[in-house]
Amino acid sequence: MVNYFGIKPKSGEKEVTPSYIFMLWYEFCNDFKNTWIRQSKNISKELKEAQENIKKITAEKRVETKKINANSLKEKLRQKEASVSSS
């Protein structure tokens, strides 16, 4: 493992000890974990802001719909057009 990663011993030492390797690995893992947590918080904050913006936009552009009376003239015309286009 030492040769694969190219780890060199500290100055004044002849060999690389397992405690030195695990110390380096622990520091790397700790830094990675802290960075991961920070980035996750930033992403979740951006996501919440985007969701709030979407809610604001959709609230402004809310369209009211009404049910169509089945016996109305418009509905009869739509049904007639649908039957003509399907045949």
Tell me, rounded to a whole number, the average pLDDT. 86
Q: Give me the strand/helix succession.
A: HHH
Query: Rg from C-alpha positions?
Result: 33 Å
Provide the helix percentage. Answer: over 70%
Structural class: mainly alpha
Instruction: Give the percentage of residues in beta strands.
Output: under 5%
Count of distinct strands: 0
The number of helical segments is 3
CA(first)-CA(last) distance: 75 Å
Spans of at least 5 consecutive residues whose pLDDT stays below 50 are none
Largest sheet: none
Query: What sort of overall outline do the alpha carbons produce when their principal axes are compared?
Result: rod-shaped
Structurally, the number of domains stands at 1
Structural descriptors:
about 90 residues; 3 helices; mainly alpha
Could you characterize what this model shows?
The protein has three helices and no strands. Helices cover 70% and strands 0% of the residues. The protein is rod-shaped. The relative contact order is 0.05. With 87 residues, it is mainly α. The model has no long low-confidence stretch (mean pLDDT 86). It has helices spanning 2-5, 18-60, 73-86. It has one domain.
